[in-house]
C-alpha cells in the first residue's frame, strides 16, 4: 500500500500525470536509449518502439497500477502478464533501477514536479517493480538452443517450425504459452519476438510464425531445417485451466496458434467439456490450421466450431460472412473464454461476451498489452 502522504499526492496529481503520461513514456524511452543504446538492439522490440505501442502500454500500465493502489487493490492479471513477458526476454531485477532513473527523470522534465510529488510517484514505481520482481523470481528463466527438425507451410503467410533441443530434455509447457525467439540480424542487432506454441511432443516443440516484420520475415527466409535457434523457456499466463466447465476458444488470424494448442490438449485428453471454437479470418486460404480445427472438434464429445470469413471463397453461409459475431453462437452458462487476435478483435469479442453474461475471460495479445493498459 502507498504511504498516506504519497497516496494523497498521487491522487491529487494522477489526472495531470495521466494526461501527460504518453509524452512521459516517449521521453523515458528517448532518455533510456540515449544512455543505453544496446537495449534497443538486444532487448526491446524496434518495431513496437517505432509505432509507439510499447510506450502506450508502459504509460497505461503505470496509470492502471496507480489507480489500483488508490483503490486498495492491484491489477493482478496485468502484472502476471508483464512478469511473464519480462522473463521471456531476459529482464533482470537490476534493470528496474535503470528504468526508475529515466522514468522519474522524464516525469520531472515533463511536469516540473516538486520533490515530494516525485518521491510519491517513485513509491508507486517501486511498489510495482517489487511486485514484478517477486513474480518473476518464481518463473523459469534462461535460453536453450534448438534445432529446426521440420517446417510446414500452413498458408502463404504462415509457417510452422518444429524444434528439438540440441541437448537436454524439452522443458515443460502448458497449452497457450509462448516462447521467445532470440534472433541475430544482419545489422548486428539481436531482436526478440514471442511466438505461441501451436503444439508439442515428448521431444519437440512447435511454434507458428506469420510473415510480419523483420524477425518473422527472417525466420521464414533463413531458418531452414537443420538450422539452430535460441529460445526462451515457455512462458505466458494465459493457459488452459483444468476443470469440467464449458470452454470458448475464440481467435482471429494468427491468434489461432494458442487456441489450436488448447484444442489439441482437450482432444488428447478426451475431454468431456462443452467446447465452442470460434475463428475469424480473411478467407479459407489465409486460415492457418483450418483442417486441424475441424479434425480436433470432431474428436471431442461435445464441441462445435463457428468460422467467419470476411471475404469467403465460393459459397459460404451469410450469417458467418464478415467479422466474428457471437450473436448467433450459443454460449453455455458458466463458460470460461480464451481469446487471441488483434486488439480490435479482442475488444469487440470481449464486449460481446460481457453482454452475453460471460465474465471469466482470458486473452493473449501479440505485442505490448494495450488492452489491459487501457
Output the strand order for the largest sheet.
Answer: 1-2-5-4-3-6
Q: Would you state the CATH class of the largest domain?
A: Mainly Alpha
SSE run: HHHHHHHEEEEEHEEHEHEEHE
Number of strands: 11
The largest sheet is: 6 strands, antiparallel, barrel
Overall residue-averaged pLDDT value: 91
| Proportion of residues in helical segments | 40-55%
Domain Globin: 1-137
Family: In the C-terminal section; belongs to the flavoprotein pyridine nucleotide cytochrome reductase family.
Catalytic activity: 2 nitric oxide + NADPH + 2 O2 = 2 nitrate + NADP(+) + H(+); 2 nitric oxide + NADH + 2 O2 = 2 nitrate + NAD(+) + H(+)
Protein name: nitric oxide dioxygenase
Structure, explained:
By secondary structure, the protein is of the alpha/beta class. It folds into 3 domains: 133 residues, Globins (Globin-like, Orthogonal Bundle), CATH 1.10.490.10; 90 residues, Translation factors (Elongation Factor Tu (Ef-tu), domain 3), CATH 2.40.30.10; 118 residues, Nucleotide-binding domain of ferredoxin-NADP reductase (FNR) module (Rossmann fold, 3-Layer(aba) Sandwich). 43% of the residues lie in helices and 21% in strands. The strands form 2 sheets. It has a 6-stranded antiparallel barrel with strand order 1-2-5-4-3-6. A 5-stranded parallel sheet has the order 9-8-7-10-11, with helices on both faces. A hairpin with a 5-residue loop joins strand 3 and strand 4. Helix 1 packs antiparallel against helix 4, helix 1 packs across helix 6 and helix 9 runs parallel beside helix 10. The longest helix is centred in the N-terminal third of the chain and has 32 residues. 37% of the residues are buried. Keywords: Heme, Iron, Metal-binding, NAD, Oxygen transport, Transport. InterPro entries: FAD-bd_FR_type (IPR017927), FNR_nucleotide-bd (IPR039261), Globin (IPR000971), Globin-like_sf (IPR009050), Globin/Proto (IPR012292), OxRdtase_FAD/NAD-bd (IPR001433), Riboflavin_synthase-like_b-brl (IPR017938). Pfam families: Globin, NAD_binding_1.
Amino acid at each position: 500500500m502507498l504511504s498516506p502522504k504519497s497516496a494523497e499526492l498521487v491522487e491529487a496529481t494522477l489526472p495531470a500525470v495521466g494526461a501527460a503520461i504518453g509524452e512521459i513514456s516517449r521521453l523515458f524511452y528517448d532518455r533510456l536509449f540515449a544512455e543505453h543504446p544496446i537495449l534497443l538492439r538486444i532487448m526491446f522490440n524496434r518495431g513496437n518502439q517505432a509505432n509507439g505501442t510499447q510506450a502506450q502500454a508502459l504509460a497505461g500500465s503505470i496509470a492502471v497500477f496507480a489507480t489500483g493502489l488508490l483503490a486498495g487493490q492491484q491489477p493482478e492479471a496485468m502484472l502476471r502478464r508483464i512478469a511473464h513477458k519480462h522473463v521471456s526476454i531476459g529482464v533482470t531485477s537490476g534493470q528496474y533501477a535503470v528504468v526508475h532513473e529515466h522514468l522519474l527523470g522524464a516525469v520531472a522534465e515533463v511536469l516540473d514536479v516538486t520533490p515530494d510529488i516525485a518521491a510519491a510517484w517513485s513509491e508507486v514505481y517501486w511498489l510495482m517493480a517489487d511486485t514484478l520482481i517477486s513474480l518473476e523470481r518464481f518463473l523459469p528463466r534462461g535460453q536453450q538452443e534448438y534445432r529446426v527438425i521440420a517446417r510446414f507451410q500452413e498458408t502463404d503467410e504462415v509457417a510452422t517450425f518444429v524444434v528439438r533441443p540440441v541437448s537436454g530434455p524439452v522443458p515443460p509447457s502448458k497449452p497457450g504459452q509462448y516462447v521467445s525467439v532470440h534472433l541475430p540480424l544482419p545489422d548486428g542487432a539481436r531482436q526478440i519476438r514471442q511466438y505461441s506454441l501451436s503444439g508439442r511432443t515428448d521431444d519437440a516443440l512447435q511454434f507458428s510464425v506469420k510473415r510480419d516484420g523483420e524477425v518473422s520475415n527472417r525466420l521464414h527466409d533463413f531458418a531452414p531445417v537443420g538450422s539452430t535457434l535460441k529460445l526462451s523457456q515457455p512462458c505466458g499466463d494465459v493457459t488452459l485451466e483444468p476443470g469440467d466447465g464449458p470452454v470458448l476458444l475464440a481467435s482471429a488470424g494468427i491468434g489461432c496458434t494458442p487456441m489450436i494448442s488448447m484444442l489439441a490438449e482437450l482432444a488428447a485428453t478426451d475431454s468431456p467439456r462443452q467446447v465452442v471454437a470460434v475463428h475469424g479470418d480473411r478467407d479459407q486460404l489465409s486460415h492457418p490450421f483450418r483442417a486441424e480445427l475441424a479434425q480436433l472438434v470432431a474428436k471431442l464429445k461435445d464441441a462445435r466450431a463457428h468460422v467467419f470469413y470476411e471475404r469467403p471463397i465460393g459459397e459460404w453461409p451469410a450469417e458467418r460472412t464478415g467479422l466474428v459475431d457471437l450473436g448467433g453462437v450459443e454460449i453455455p452458462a458458466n463458460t470460461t473464454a480464451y481469446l487471441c487476435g488483434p486488439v480490435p478483435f479482442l475488444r469487440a469479442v470481449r464486449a460481446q461476451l460481457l453482454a452475453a453474461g460471460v465474465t471469466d475471460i482470458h486473452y493473449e495479445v501479440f505485442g505490448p498489452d494495450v488492452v489491459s493498459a487501457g
